[in-house]
Amino acid sequence: MQKDLMSYAKVYKNFVDREFCQEIIDQLKDVEFRQHQFYNVHTDSHTSYDKELSISNADIPARQALTAHVWKAYHRYTSELGFRWFGSWEGFSAPRFNRYDVNTQMAEHCDHIHSLFDGPNRGIPTMTALGCLNNDYEGGDLIMWQDTKIDLQAGDIMVFPSVFLYPHRIEEITSGVRYSYVAWAW
């Protein structure tokens, strides 16, 4: 059994074809994005920090195919880690799209999200899938554990546990626009 935290954060290089990544970005050009907010379960309120990214749950034509890629990444992840005892998860979200314009970022957080799955799909995520769609920007590094830079390029996807042991952030964009997506399984 693996014992260090990094062994449970898997990056799969070129998991999504770069042409498909560009197709997704082209489809996102005309959708509405809104400023990201963090939910505070104790106060039942939302907070948006200074310079926070924009998000969209738009149901673009490529979303279903991207969801299939995420599903394959979850299966690969659990298989590679040898979790034979792990039968399945109860559900998973479709990808949410993230847009980072110049001077935006995402504050440090963990993905122990209480408000994500309301209504008929209820749960707290156990796995996060985070994918990068483009490379034509500067800044925007993914940082885990306050000082570990994770190299994600267009087409790469990373899967990791959605718990407090995996704090992460996206550093401020200095030029260009960074597009990514995130999905969760519970």
Give an account of the 3D structure.
With 186 residues, the protein is α+β, with helices and mostly antiparallel strands. It has helices at residues 18-28, 63-80, and strands at 10-12, 34-35, 38-40, 45-47, 54-56, 96-100, 106-109, 127-132, 137-139, 142-144, 148-150, 157-161, 168-170, 173-176, 178-185. It has one domain: q2cbj1_9rhob like domain (Jelly Rolls, Sandwich), CATH 2.60.120.620. The protein is built from 2 helices and 15 strands. The strands form 4 sheets. A 7-stranded antiparallel β-sheet has the order 1-12-8-15-6-5-2, covered by helices on one side. It has a 4-stranded antiparallel β-sheet with strand order 7-13-10-11, with no helix packed on it. It has a two-stranded antiparallel sheet with strand order 3-4. A hairpin with a 3-residue loop joins strand 10 and strand 11 (148-150).
